[in-house]
Amino acid sequence: MDDRTFRNAMGKFATGVTVITTDHGGESHGMTANAFMSVSLNPRLVVVSIGEKARMLEKIRESGKFAVNILSEQQQEVSMLFAGQLKEKREADLDTVQGVPVVKDALANVVCKVYGTQIVGDHTLFIGEVEDIVLRDGKPLTFYEGKYGKLAETQLI
Length: 157
Hints:
Blueprint: H1 3-10, E1 15-16, E2 18-24, E3 27-33, E4 36-40, E5 45-51, H2 56-63, E6 65-70, H3 76-82, E7 94-97, E8 100-103, E9 108-120, E10 123-135, E11 141-144, E12 147-150
Antiparallel strand pairs: 1-11, 2-3, 2-6, 4-5, 5-10, 6-9, 7-8, 9-10, 11-12
Keywords: Oxidoreductase
GO molecular function, one term: oxidoreductase activity
Enzyme class: oxidoreductase
Protein backbone atom coordinates (compact mmCIF):
# COMPACT_ATOMS: atom_id res chain seq x y z
CA MET A 1 0.00 0.00 0.00
CA ASP A 2 1.15 3.56 -0.59
CA ASP A 3 1.25 6.44 1.92
CA ARG A 4 -1.96 8.00 0.54
CA THR A 5 -3.94 4.78 1.07
CA PHE A 6 -2.67 4.58 4.65
CA ARG A 7 -3.56 8.24 5.32
CA ASN A 8 -7.02 7.80 3.78
CA ALA A 9 -7.69 4.76 5.96
CA MET A 10 -6.59 6.61 9.12
CA GLY A 11 -8.84 9.53 8.08
CA LYS A 12 -11.85 7.20 8.44
CA PHE A 13 -11.39 7.41 12.21
CA ALA A 14 -13.23 10.51 13.45
CA THR A 15 -11.35 12.37 16.18
CA GLY A 16 -11.60 15.43 18.28
CA VAL A 17 -9.19 18.30 17.69
CA THR A 18 -6.62 19.47 20.21
CA VAL A 19 -3.95 22.11 20.42
CA ILE A 20 -0.83 21.04 22.29
CA THR A 21 0.82 23.98 24.09
CA THR A 22 4.01 24.52 26.06
CA ASP A 23 6.22 27.29 27.38
CA HIS A 24 9.78 27.39 26.10
CA GLY A 25 12.12 30.16 27.16
CA GLY A 26 9.26 32.33 28.38
CA GLU A 27 7.39 32.09 25.07
CA SER A 28 4.17 30.19 24.40
CA HIS A 29 4.13 27.66 21.58
CA GLY A 30 1.38 25.44 20.22
CA MET A 31 0.45 23.01 17.49
CA THR A 32 -2.79 21.42 16.34
CA ALA A 33 -2.96 17.65 16.83
CA ASN A 34 -5.51 14.87 16.83
CA ALA A 35 -3.14 12.10 17.97
CA PHE A 36 -4.10 12.18 21.65
CA MET A 37 -5.58 9.65 24.06
CA SER A 38 -5.92 8.83 27.72
CA VAL A 39 -3.70 6.00 28.93
CA SER A 40 -4.16 5.37 32.63
CA LEU A 41 -6.33 6.40 35.55
CA ASN A 42 -3.78 5.54 38.24
CA PRO A 43 -1.51 7.36 37.69
CA ARG A 44 -3.49 9.77 35.48
CA LEU A 45 -1.66 9.60 32.16
CA VAL A 46 -2.33 10.81 28.62
CA VAL A 47 -0.26 10.53 25.45
CA VAL A 48 0.33 12.85 22.50
CA SER A 49 2.19 11.98 19.32
CA ILE A 50 4.52 14.60 17.85
CA GLY A 51 6.23 14.20 14.45
CA GLU A 52 10.01 14.24 14.32
CA LYS A 53 9.98 17.30 12.03
CA ALA A 54 7.65 19.34 14.26
CA ARG A 55 9.25 22.35 15.97
CA MET A 56 7.20 21.45 19.06
CA LEU A 57 9.21 18.26 19.64
CA GLU A 58 12.28 19.90 21.19
CA LYS A 59 10.20 22.53 22.97
CA ILE A 60 8.30 19.88 24.95
CA ARG A 61 11.47 17.87 25.56
CA GLU A 62 13.20 20.91 27.01
CA SER A 63 10.26 22.34 28.99
CA GLY A 64 9.16 19.00 30.44
CA LYS A 65 5.53 20.23 30.48
CA PHE A 66 2.67 20.56 28.04
CA ALA A 67 -1.08 21.07 27.92
CA VAL A 68 -3.66 19.32 25.77
CA ASN A 69 -6.44 21.75 24.88
CA ILE A 70 -9.58 20.01 23.60
CA LEU A 71 -11.27 22.44 21.22
CA SER A 72 -14.96 23.28 21.06
CA GLU A 73 -16.95 23.38 17.83
CA GLN A 74 -16.56 27.19 17.87
CA GLN A 75 -12.77 26.96 17.77
CA GLN A 76 -12.03 25.81 14.23
CA GLU A 77 -10.15 29.06 13.59
CA VAL A 78 -7.97 28.38 16.66
CA SER A 79 -7.11 24.96 15.24
CA MET A 80 -6.30 26.50 11.86
CA LEU A 81 -4.11 29.16 13.51
CA PHE A 82 -1.97 26.55 15.28
CA ALA A 83 -1.88 24.38 12.15
CA GLY A 84 -0.47 27.29 10.14
CA GLN A 85 -3.56 27.36 7.89
CA LEU A 86 -4.48 31.03 8.34
CA LYS A 87 -3.07 33.58 5.92
CA GLU A 88 -3.07 36.56 8.28
CA LYS A 89 -0.69 36.60 11.21
CA ARG A 90 -2.55 36.62 14.54
CA GLU A 91 -1.78 36.10 18.17
CA ALA A 92 -3.46 33.23 19.96
CA ASP A 93 -5.79 33.92 22.89
CA LEU A 94 -4.00 32.06 25.68
CA ASP A 95 -4.16 31.83 29.45
CA THR A 96 -1.91 29.91 31.84
CA VAL A 97 -2.56 27.08 34.27
CA GLN A 98 0.32 26.17 36.59
CA GLY A 99 2.68 28.16 34.38
CA VAL A 100 1.71 26.29 31.19
CA PRO A 101 -0.01 28.19 28.38
CA VAL A 102 -3.54 26.97 27.61
CA VAL A 103 -6.13 27.89 24.96
CA LYS A 104 -8.86 30.11 26.40
CA ASP A 105 -12.40 28.71 26.26
CA ALA A 106 -11.33 25.19 25.20
CA LEU A 107 -13.63 22.38 26.39
CA ALA A 108 -10.77 21.07 28.48
CA ASN A 109 -7.25 22.18 29.35
CA VAL A 110 -5.25 19.17 30.52
CA VAL A 111 -1.93 20.27 32.03
CA CYS A 112 0.81 17.63 32.20
CA LYS A 113 4.40 17.07 33.13
CA VAL A 114 6.33 14.68 30.91
CA TYR A 115 6.21 11.25 32.53
CA GLY A 116 8.04 9.44 29.73
CA THR A 117 8.81 9.42 26.03
CA GLN A 118 8.93 6.73 23.40
CA ILE A 119 10.27 7.15 19.87
CA VAL A 120 8.03 5.22 17.48
CA GLY A 121 8.72 5.42 13.76
CA ASP A 122 8.81 9.07 12.69
CA HIS A 123 7.06 10.32 15.87
CA THR A 124 7.77 10.69 19.57
CA LEU A 125 5.06 9.74 22.03
CA PHE A 126 5.00 12.05 25.04
CA ILE A 127 3.33 10.41 28.00
CA GLY A 128 2.07 13.12 30.29
CA GLU A 129 1.15 12.86 33.95
CA VAL A 130 -1.91 15.04 34.45
CA GLU A 131 -1.31 17.76 37.03
CA ASP A 132 -4.39 19.93 36.52
CA ILE A 133 -7.60 20.07 34.47
CA VAL A 134 -9.95 22.93 33.62
CA LEU A 135 -13.34 21.90 32.15
CA ARG A 136 -16.03 23.85 30.29
CA ASP A 137 -19.38 22.89 28.79
CA GLY A 138 -19.85 22.66 25.05
CA LYS A 139 -19.51 20.37 22.06
CA PRO A 140 -16.24 19.27 20.46
CA LEU A 141 -14.71 20.24 17.16
CA THR A 142 -14.27 17.05 15.12
CA PHE A 143 -12.01 15.95 12.27
CA TYR A 144 -12.94 13.29 9.72
CA GLU A 145 -11.54 12.51 6.27
CA GLY A 146 -9.37 15.63 6.41
CA LYS A 147 -12.25 17.99 7.20
CA TYR A 148 -13.49 19.79 10.28
CA GLY A 149 -16.97 19.00 11.54
CA LYS A 150 -19.36 19.04 14.46
CA LEU A 151 -21.27 16.33 16.27
CA ALA A 152 -24.70 15.75 14.84
CA GLU A 153 -27.64 16.38 17.14
CA THR A 154 -29.07 13.09 18.32
CA GLN A 155 -32.51 12.39 19.59
CA LEU A 156 -33.03 9.77 22.25
CA ILE A 157 -35.97 7.47 21.64
